[in-house]
C-alpha cells in the first residue's frame, strides 16, 4: 500500500448564540482555503444536507510546529446548530473537540447562549479562539475602535476562565448578510485560518478501550451498502470488526472504510471516518452511536461526581428535576446530593472512582461558598462553611439511557425561557456507576451508604431516683418507643443516659443514668417539679408570673443518631 501523505485531523467546534453567523463562517472557512476539501458527495447534495448537520472541512499545509515533512492539516468544523443539539453535540463530541471557535456577533457581544457555550467549552475543551463576526455592520469610520472595545470586553469576560488570553479575531464571514451576492469576499477569514493553524496541536489520541463512534450521517451507495460517517469518540476499528448499533440492538460487520476519500483498514479515536456495512436501511439511523458489541450499558439510575456550574443562578437541591444529558441522550432525572462524611471532608478523593465501602452524608442542597441555606448562615458566623473536596449525586432517570461508562454528564434547566438572560446549565460530572437493573431500588441502592443525621430533643419531666429520670416531648404519642430502647441520650446538664422504655401512654419514657445524676442536677429538677406542683394548685396566671421571675431552665434531653437513607429496616445507628 503506498504511503498516504500524512493528514492530521483537528476537530474544531463552532459554537455561538443563535444568529451569530456560525454557518456562514464555517462555509466561508471551508471555501476560502484554496485547498478546501468541502465534502461534496453527490449523496449529500441529493439529500440536501447543508452544513448545518455538522461537518465540513478545510485543508491547509501542515504548519512547522506540527512536525517535518509533507502533509496536510485538516480542520473538521463541527458546526453545532441550535441549543439542545448544541449541548448534545458538544457533550457527545466533548472527548474529540480539540479546539473551540466561539462566534460572537460584534454588534451584540456576549449573549445567553454564548455564555453557555463558554461553560461547555470549559468543561469539554482545552483551547479556544474567539471570533468577532459581522464587522461589516459597523460603520467604517468607527469600525476599528468598536472592534478594539469589544476585544477588551471579551478579554475581561475570559479573565477568570481557562481561556484567559486566547486569540480574538475580527471577521465578516458574509459581508452584506445572507442576501448579498456570492461575489462579496469575506473579511478577515484568511487571518483566522492562520490563527487556527497557530493554535493547532497534536491532539492526544488513545486507540485502547472500546470502540465508540458518533454517527452524524447515514446513506446508501448502490452496489456497496450503507455508509455511516462520523467521528470516533474512543477506541479504534478495523476492517472485518463487528460493530453494534445499540439503539436498534443490531450488530453489523465492517465491510470497508474510508478516511479523507481514501480507503483504509484501521481508524482510531478522533478520526473522521466512513464505515460501510451491508443490509442495513440508512433511514433507521440518521444520527446516533455505534460501538463494540455489548460495550454500552443502559442505565436506570447512576452515581455521578458533581460540580455546580458557577453561572447557574438557582440552588442545586436534592429531589429537584433536571434535563440530564448523558452520552448522546437527554432525559429528565431527579437528583439526590450527598457529600463525604464530615470527618472526610478534606480527604483527597480518587478521580473517576466511587467507593461503596464508605459512609456518605445526605445533603438537602449542593454545598458551596454561595449556598445560602439558613444552617450555613449560622455556620458562617461561626467561621465559614466547610466545603468538601468532592460531592456526588444519585441520578434517577425517567427513562433508561444508553451510554458509555465514565461518560460526561451535564444537568440543565432547558425549560427556562430561552430569552431569559440566564445560564441554563446547572451542573456537570462524570458517570461513576450506572445501575442497569430496573429494580435498582431494591437490588442496588441498599449498597449506597448515604445517611441522614437525626437530632431529636425532649425534656426531663421529673426525677425517679438517683439513677433514672422520666422524659417527655421526644416522641409523638403514637411512636413505638420499643425501637428506641438502648439508644444513648445526653442531658443538657452533662449526664449520659440510655433509653430504658416507655412510661405510661402519652409518649413519656424512662431514662437510665448509669453514672448517676449530679447533685446539682437533682436540685434543679426538684426545684422545677416543686414549682410545677405549686402552680398546679393555684391558678394559671400565677404560673406564668412565677416562670418569669424564677428562671429555672428545663433540663433538655438530646438524642442523636444516623439512619441510612436506603436501609429498608430504617435502623438507627449511634457511633
UniProtKB/TrEMBL annotation:
One of its GO terms (molecular function) is tRNA binding. Its cofactor is Mg(2+); Mn(2+). Residues 527-551 are annotated as: Disordered. One of its GO terms (cellular component) is nucleus. Residues 536-548 have a biased composition (Basic and acidic residues). This is Selenocysteine-specific elongation factor. InterPro entries: eEFSec_C, eEFSec_III, EF-Tu_GTPase, EFTu-like_2, P-loop_NTPase, Small_GTP-bd, T_Tr_GTP-bd_dom, Transl_B-barrel_sf. It comes from the Eukaryota. CDD domains: eSelB_III, SelB_euk, SelB_II. Translation factor required for the incorporation of the rare amino acid selenocysteine encoded by UGA codons. Replaces the eRF1-eRF3-GTP ternary complex for the insertion of selenocysteine directed by the UGA codon. Insertion of selenocysteine at UGA codons is mediated by SECISBP2 and EEFSEC: SECISBP2 (1) specifically binds the SECIS sequence once the 80S ribosome encounters an in-frame UGA codon and (2) contacts the RPS27A/eS31 of the 40S ribosome before ribosome stalling. It catalyses: GTP + H2O = GDP + phosphate + H(+). PROSITE patterns: G_TR_2. Keywords: Cytoplasm, GTP-binding, Hydrolase, Methylation, Nucleotide-binding, Nucleus, Phosphoprotein, Protein biosynthesis. Residues 7-204 form the Tr-type G domain. GO terms for biological process: selenocysteine incorporation. Its main location: cytoplasm. It is found in: Cytoplasm; Nucleus.
Amino acid at each position: 500500500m503506498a504511503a498516504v501523505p500524512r493528514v492530521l485531523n483537528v476537530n474544531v467546534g463552532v459554537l455561538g448564540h443563535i444568529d451569530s453567523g456560525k454557518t456562514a463562517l464555517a462555509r466561508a472557512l471551508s471555501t476560502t482555503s484554496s485547498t478546501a476539501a468541502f465534502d461534496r458527495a453527490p449523496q449529500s447534495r441529493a439529500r440536501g444536507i447543508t452544513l448545518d448537520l455538522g461537518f465540513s472541512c478545510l485543508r491547509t499545509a501542515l504548519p512547522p510546529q506540527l512536525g517535518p515533512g509533507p502533509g496536510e492539516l485538516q480542520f473538521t468544523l463541527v458546526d453545532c446548530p441550535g441549543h439542545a443539539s448544541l449541548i448534545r453535540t458538544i457533550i457527545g463530541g466533548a472527548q474529540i473537540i480539540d479546539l473551540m471557535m466561539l462566534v460572537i456577533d460584534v454588534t451584540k457581544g456576549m449573549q445567553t447562549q454564548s455564555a453557555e457555550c463558554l461553560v461547555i467549552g470549559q468543561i469539554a475543551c482545552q483551547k479556544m479562539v474567539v471570533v468577532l463576526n459581522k464587522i461589516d455592520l459597523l460603520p467604517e469610520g468607527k469600525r476599528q475602535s468598536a472592534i478594539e472595545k469589544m476585544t477588551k470586553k471579551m478579554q475581561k469576560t475570559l479573565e477568570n476562565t481557562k481561556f484567559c488570553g486566547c486569540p480574538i479575531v475580527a471577521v465578516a464571514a458574509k459581508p452584506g448578510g445572507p442576501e448579498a451576492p456570492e461575489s462579496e469576499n469575506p473579511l478577515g477569514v484568511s487571518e483566522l485560518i492562520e490563527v487556527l493553524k497557530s493554535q493547532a496541536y497534536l491532539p492526544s489520541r488513545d486507540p485502547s478501550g472500546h470502540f465508540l463512534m458518533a454517527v452524524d450521517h447515514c446513506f446508501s451507495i448502490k452496489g456497496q451498502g450503507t455508509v455511516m460517517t462520523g467521528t470516533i469518540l474512543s477506541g479504534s476499528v478495523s476492517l472485518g470488526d463487528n460493530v453494534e448499533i445499540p439503539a436498534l440492538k443490531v450488530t453489523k460487520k465492517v465491510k470497508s472504510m474510508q478516511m479523507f476519500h481514501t480507503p483504509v483498514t484501521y481508524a482510531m479515536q478522533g478520526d473522521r471516518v466512513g464505515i460501510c456495512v451491508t443490509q442495513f436501511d440508512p433511514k433507521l439511523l440518521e444520527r446516533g452511536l455505534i460501538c463494540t458489541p455489548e460495550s454500552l450499558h443502559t442505565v436506570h439510575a447512576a452515581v455521578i461526581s458533581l460540580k455546580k456550574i458557577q453561572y447557574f443562578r438557582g440552588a442545586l437541591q436534592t429531589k429537584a428535576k433536571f434535563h440530564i444529558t448523558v452520552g448522546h441522550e437527554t432525559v429528565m432525572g431527579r437528583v439526590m446530593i450527598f457529600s463525604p462524611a464530615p470527618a472526610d471532608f478534606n480527604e483527597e478523593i480518587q478521580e473517576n472512582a466511587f467507593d461503596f465501602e464508605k459512609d456518605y452524608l445526605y445533603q438537602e442542597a449542593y454545598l458551596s461558598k454561595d449556598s445560602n441555606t439558613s444552617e450555613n448562615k449560622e455556620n458562617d458566623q461561626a467561621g465559614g462553611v466547610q466545603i468538601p473536596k468532592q460531592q456526588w449525586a444519585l441520578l434517577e432517570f425517567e427513562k433508561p439511557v444508553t451510554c458509555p461508562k465514565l461518560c460526561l454528564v451535564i444537568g440543565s434547566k432547558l425549560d427556562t425561557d430561552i430569552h431569559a438572560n440566564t445560564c441554563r446549565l446547572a451542573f456537570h460530572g462524570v458517570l461513576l456507576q450506572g445501575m442497569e437493573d430496573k429494580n435498582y431500588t431494591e437490588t442496588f441502592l441498599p449498597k449506597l451508604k448515604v445517611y441522614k443525621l437525626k437530632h431529636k430533643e425532649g425534656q426531663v419531666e421529673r426525677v425517679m431516683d438517683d439513677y433514672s429520670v422520666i422524659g417527655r416531648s421526644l416522641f409523638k404519642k403514637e411512636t413505638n418507643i420499643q425501637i428506641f430502647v438502648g439508644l444513648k441520650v445526653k442531658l443538657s446538664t452533662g449526664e449520659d443516659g440510655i433509653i430504658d422504655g416507655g412510661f405510661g401512654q402519652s409518649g413519656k419514657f424512662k431514662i437510665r443514668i448509669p453514672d448517676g445524676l449530679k447533685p446539682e442536677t437533682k436540685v434543679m429538677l426538684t426545684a422545677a417539679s416543686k414549682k410545677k406542683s405549686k402552680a398546679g394548685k393555684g391558678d394559671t396566671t400565677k404560673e406564668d408570673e412565677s416562670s418569669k421571675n424564677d428562671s429555672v431552665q428545663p433540663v433538655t434531653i438530646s438524642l442523636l443518631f444516623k439512619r441510612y437513607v436506603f436501609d429498608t429496616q430504617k435502623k438507627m445507628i449511634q457511633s
